[in-house]
């Protein structure tokens, strides 16, 4: 194997985002996400997923073809979410490191492993590689909710408002 990570390899099996995604009926999370910007699932198991991000011109941040790191983060986050694969799952924290640049035309492969299966709060370790060279590593904390986050947030706001009004009434009566 060549040390040049940018060298093309004929033995890469490529599933393009616009191609048929064999896991489309099994993926519960982020159904409206654009695969061209988030990556394509190539392996889906309980608490484990592999994805591929095909870098495109829309992701380029400069005249040299550097891919903006936000796209790498987003693709890693999608891998984390898909490893848990629940409808109402949101990211609440991420500790990440970028180890190398990504350029136009690179294919980034992510592997995500989820931990603490019995808990609503889950940790997911994600590693991103270009041709076996690690360019990204992160740990994402995600929470599995019983309902959509907007509904949960609205209920929480209403609860907090009721508590605040009760405290204000107590102060007025004192």
UniProtKB/TrEMBL annotation:
Coiled-coil ranges (or none): none
Limits of the Thioesterase domain: 75-113
Stored Pfam families: 4HBT (PF03061)
InterPro entries xref list: HotDog_dom_sf (IPR029069), Thioestr_dom (IPR006683)
Domain of life: Bacteria
Transmembrane intervals: none
GO molecular function, one term: thiolester hydrolase activity
Name of protein: Acyl-CoA thioesterase
Higher taxonomy: Bacteria, Pseudomonadati, Campylobacterota, Epsilonproteobacteria, Campylobacterales
């Amino acid at each position: 194997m060549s040390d040049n990570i940018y060298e093309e390899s004929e033995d890469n099996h490529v599933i393009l985002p616009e191609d048929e995604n064999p896991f489309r009926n099994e993926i519960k999370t982020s159904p409206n996400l654009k695969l061209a910007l988030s990556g394509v699932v190539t392996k889906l198991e309980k608490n484990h997923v592999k994805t591929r991000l095909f870098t495109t011109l829309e992701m380029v941040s400069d005249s040299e073809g550097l891919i903006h790191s936000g796209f790498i983060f987003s693709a890693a986050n999608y891998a984390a979410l898909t490893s848990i694969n629940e409808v109402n799952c949101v990211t609440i924290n991420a500790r990440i490191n970028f180890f190398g640049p990504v350029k136009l035309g690179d294919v980034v492969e992510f592997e995500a492993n989820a931990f603490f299966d019995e808990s609503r709060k889950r940790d997911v370790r994600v590693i991103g590689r270009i041709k076996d060279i690690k360019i990204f590593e992160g740990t994402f904390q995600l929470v599995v909710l019983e309902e959509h986050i907007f509904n949960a947030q609205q209920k929480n706001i209403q609860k907090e408002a009721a508590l605040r009004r009760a405290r204000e009434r107590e102060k007025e009566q004192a």
